[in-house]
Amino acid sequence: MFNEENPVYAHEELLTRIGGLLAKARASGVPVIYVQHNEGAGEELETGSPAWEIHAAIAPEEGEPRIQKHKPDSFEDTDLQSELAARGIGKLVIAGLQTDMCVNATATRAAELGYAITVAGDAHSTWAQGGRSAAEIIEAHNARFSSFARIQNSTAISFE
C-alpha cells in the first residue's frame, strides 16, 4: 500500500476513514466483506507478500469474508455476487484502492448488476500518474461515479 515509487495519496487519512467506516458498519451489524487483489510471482501484489497483506489498521475481524480476485472487477471470476446474495445484500458501500482500477471496475459492475451503491468519496485512493495528480484522478472518478452511485464522505455515511 505504501510503495515508495507510487505512494498512495493521503494514505494515513485513507486508513482512518476506512477504519471509521468499518467501525460504523460493525456497530450497526452490517456485514463487512473484504476483497483482496492477488498477483503472480514477482508482481507488486504477489499473493502472500507484505504488499498484498491487508493493512493491520483495517484488517478483517474473525468471520468477515475475504474475496480473492485476480482482476480489477471484484465480481469477475469470484464468488462476491453469491456471497452478497446469500446475505441478502442489495446495497454496497465501496472504499479502498485503487480509484482508477479496482474501485472503478467494481463500482461500475455493481451498478450494472443492479446494486444500490454508495462510494465513499474520501475513502478511496490512488497515486499520481499520466501527468495527473492523485487528487485530480480521485475527483474525476467521483464525478464519474456520481452518474450511477451516491457519493458521500465517509463521516456522512450511515449504516442505520
From TrEMBL:
From the record, give the transmembrane residue ranges: none
Give the highest taxon in the source lineage: Bacteria
Under the heading SUPFAM superfamilies, the entry gives: Isochorismatase-like hydrolases
Q: Name one GO molecular function term.
A: hydrolase activity
**UniProt KW keywords:** Hydrolase
Among InterPro entries, the record links this protein to:
Isochorismatase-like_dom (IPR000868), Isochorismatase-like_hydrls (IPR050272), Isochorismatase-like_sf (IPR036380)
User: Pfam families, from UniProt?
Assistant: Isochorismatase
Show where the Isochorismatase-like domain sits: 9-134
Keyword Transport among record annotations = no
Presence of the UniProt keyword Hydrolase in the record: yes
The record's comment on protein family reads: Belongs to the isochorismatase family.
Query: Which protein are we looking at?
Result: Cysteine hydrolase
Whose protein is this, by species?
Paenibacillus montanisoli
